[in-house]
Amino acid sequence: MTQYIAVKKETTEREMFSIAAVDRGEVADCIEDVFPSFERVMPLVRLLQENAVPVEHFHDVVEDYILAEQ
After folding, report:
1. Alpha-helical regions (H) of 1-70
2. How many domains does the chain have?
3. What is the pLDDT averaged over residues 35-61?
């Protein structure tokens, strides 16, 4: 089963959060720089996790979520 986790990335200019899809202890996929805060990325991580989104639909679900926020 795929697990989704938030990954914090800090640079000298800013802090951003990515989402990694982890399957059997290996990173199967990762979407970089999704949101600038933990508070914004975690509802999406929970949605992915609670709905057991297959990794092949990961990018589509994230894209739809971000577009729906706008």
Report:
1. 38-50, 58-69
2. 1
3. 97
**Range(s) of the domain holding residue 27:** 2-69
Buried b or exposed e, range 44-60, using 16+ CB within 10 angstroms: bbeebeeeebeeeebee
Report the alpha-carbon distance of residue 5 to residue 7 in Å, rounded: 6
Give the Cα-Cα-Cα angle 11, 15, 18 (nearest 5 degrees): 105
Q: Give the pTM.
A: 0.91
Mean pLDDT for the stretch of residues 43-66: 97
Give the DSSP letter of residue 39.
H
